[in-house]
Amino acid sequence: MSSILSTCINLLLLLSSAYAFNHPGLLVSEADITRIQNKLSAHADPWQASWDKLVSLDNSQSTYVNHAVAGVYRNTANGVKANAELLWHDAAAAFNLALRWKIERNATYAEAASNILGAWGRKLKEFDVGDDEYLTAGLQGYQLVNAAELLRDHAPFESSGNATAFSTMFEKTFLYKNLFFLNHKAPSEHNVRHFFANWELCNMASAMAFGIYTDNATLFDFAVEYFKTGEGNGAVNNGISNLVSEPGTGTIMGQPQEAGRDQGHTGLDFQLFGVVAQQAWNQGKDLYGYNSSRVLLGAEYYARYNLGNDVPFEPYTNGIVSYTTVSPASRGAHRPTWELLYAHYVQIKGLEAPWTELYKNYTTKAMGGFEGGAGSWGEGSGHYDGLGWGSLLHHLDVGDVDAVSSNSSASNSATLSTPSTTSSNKSLVAQTSAYVTTSVPASATTSVLPRSSKSSQKSTVSASTTLQSVLEAKPLPTRVSHMCTRS
Ligand SMILES: *[C@@H]1O[C@H](CO)[C@@H](O)[C@H](O)[C@H]1NC(C)=O
Ligand SMILES: *[C@@H]1O[C@H](CO)[C@@H](O)[C@H](O)[C@H]1NC(C)=O
Ligand SMILES: *[C@@H]1O[C@H](CO)[C@@H](O)[C@H](O)[C@H]1NC(C)=O
Ligand SMILES: *[C@@H]1O[C@H](CO)[C@@H](O)[C@H](O)[C@H]1NC(C)=O
Ligand SMILES: *[C@@H]1O[C@H](CO)[C@@H](O)[C@H](O)[C@H]1NC(C)=O
Ligand SMILES: *[C@@H]1O[C@H](CO)[C@@H](O)[C@H](O)[C@H]1NC(C)=O
Ligand SMILES: *[C@@H]1O[C@H](CO)[C@@H](O)[C@H](O)[C@H]1NC(C)=O
Fold it and tell me: Most CB contacts within 10 A, which of 174, 186, 296, 328?
């Protein structure tokens, strides 16, 4: 009797303490907010320049009026006109305003963000008929939840009914689609490798975000497990599909699943790997380091190639498309991603990631000195696939590293594994000084020009135009979608 009782008590304790989620604990942690506040008090760049840009945007004002509608469509089809930019803009606004609330502690901004999320909570019912609904469900899904997560300490979000309206809608629409898709229930998923990596990554990011936001360990674990062992291309060993040797050094690099397709989408994969890994990291789960830091192996390959250097390529096929060579399409495109990857791998982990560092420098330079955020660096879907603001949220001075490392290690969640801080582990990317001086271009900007004059013409198109046109290529009709691959 007493042993049964104590077993029951132990079980209850186990269940109730299994996960104590950190909040805010998606892309932004409390330690991040504290650091940003300190940097802004000192008017230090790149934080100050990023912040000045953020607060100047229309979508960062308390007077911002939401565009909530019942249906969000990325494509004009079946008599309805594409309107997805309404949600892209509002998701970015909700995040920017929620960030202003956290950083400035002015409730006016929290109310504005709360009203945006509440309005969508009351109105949204459906997405595109056809596969593109999963892009909206994934990309805007994780973005909206990232905004909601920053409002958890604004009591009226809950008491006004906005939080509930948002969550109820999210579960029925976004999350339902995220799980349907990741469980390979869509007809086009008769081949589980049908969809390129970015499709699954954004759906993983969304399901994981909602799991953390609602303290749902089942959902969080599902996304973590999918990242590690999922069957589709979002799982890291498929998303970075081959291990190859870097010319000249023999260093292992990861060939990304979309590398034979184009560089715009491959860059999106690293943007989304960053989201998934950072959200997990803020809960004490180290997906960045999973399987010899596979994400970094891929980032190094991507950055090396996109800075104008050669990479090896192993033939890739998923049974639908086949590639025998890396694609120069949209080579050198930039996205706000690299501040995060650099800060994590080089500064927090102490690993060497020379190409990632150069790509961070190239990207920040191309974007005007700091990584912009949604709404600040251009229009079109590609500019709204990520929330951005890496130079504000993730850039670290040397002196900031310890605080971030210790505060992000899930201090209040005893049963979550602590990130393995391999601060002194430099073995991942074996590097010699000869490698740096011979292979690293003198200037990242000039080196993005590919070698052949044919592809050089492509690369002189502005990176953002290229990115946008690539991502907005019209998809094929739904009925033949199982025979082709898209976004
Ligand atoms: C880290 O966490 C501690 C305790 O939660 C807090 O007092 C401290 O301000 C945090 N440090 C930073 C840099 O946010
Ligand atoms: C809070 O923000 C609003 C909107 O920008 C502004 O009018 C108000 O003065 C701010 N309040 C404080 C205390 O700064
Ligand atoms: C959201 O909050 C506002 C007040 O900030 C309120 O007017 C509105 O009714 C709330 N929405 C819901 C669904 O309760
Ligand atoms: C967690 O999420 C899953 C998937 O949506 C759901 O079935 C389950 O009921 C949720 N658990 C809790 C405790 O809300
Ligand atoms: C790590 O990657 C290798 C090579 O792709 C693979 O064989 C192995 O199963 C992966 N291990 C884990 C734990 O994912
Ligand atoms: C260093 O990293 C390698 C590759 O990820 C790993 O196998 C090794 O165990 C790590 N060593 C230490 C001391 O963390
Ligand atoms: C990247 O930029 C920083 C800041 O300007 C600079 O200190 C660093 O040397 C650059 N890294 C490389 C590899 O050029």
Answer: 296
249 by Cβ neighbours in 10 Å (0-12 / 13-18 / 19+) ranks as: middle
Beta carbon of 167 within 6 Å of any ligand 3 atom: no
Q: What is the mean pLDDT of the chain?
A: 84
Q: Are 352 and 346 in contact (CB under 8 A)?
A: yes
Q: Is the pLDDT of residue 241 over 50?
A: yes
In what helix (H) or strand (E) does residue 303 lie, and over which residues does it extend?
helix 290-306
Q: What is the CATH number of domain 2-470?
A: 1.50.10.100
Which residue ranges make up each domain of the chain? 2-470
Q: Please list, in sequence order, all residues whose beta carbon lies within 8 angstroms of the beta carbon of residue 214, skipping any fewer than 6 positions away.
A: 167
Which of 64, 170, 92 is CA-nearest to residue 127? 170
Ligand nearest to the CA of 63: 2
Q: How far apart are CA 366 and CA 359, in angstroms?
A: 10
Distance spanning both ends of the chain, measured CA to CA: 59
* pLDDT score recorded for residue 415: 33
Residue of 407, 408, 411 best suited for mutating to test ligand 1, as the one with most atoms within 8 Å of CB: 407
pLDDT in tens, 293-325: 999 999 999 999 999 999 999 999 998 999 999
Our measurement of the distance from residue 462's CA atom to the centroid of its chain's CA atoms, rounded to an integer in Å, reads: 23
Q: Beta-carbon neighbour count of residue 413 at 10 Å?
A: 19
Contacts of 423 (CB under 8 A, 6+ apart): 348, 349, 350, 405
Q: Which residues line ligand 6 (CB under 6 A)?
A: 292-293, 422, 425, 427-428
Q: Is this model's pTM higher than 0.85 or not?
A: no
Tell me, what's the pLDDT at 403?
82
pLDDT digits (tens, 9 = 90+) for 141-193: 999 999 999 999 999 999 999 999 999 999 999 999 999 999 999 998 999 99
With a CB cutoff of 8 Å and minimum separation 6, the contacts of 96 are 54, 57, 59, 60, 373, 374, 375
> Can you tell me which atom of ligand 1 is nearest the CA of 30?
14
CB of 337 closer than 8 Å to CB of 274: yes
Quick check: CB of 216 below 6 Å from ligand 4?
yes
Closest residue by Cα to residue 39 from 286, 403, 416, 448? 403
**Rounded Cα gap, residues 460 and 464, in angstroms:** 11
Residue 15: what pLDDT?
A: 52
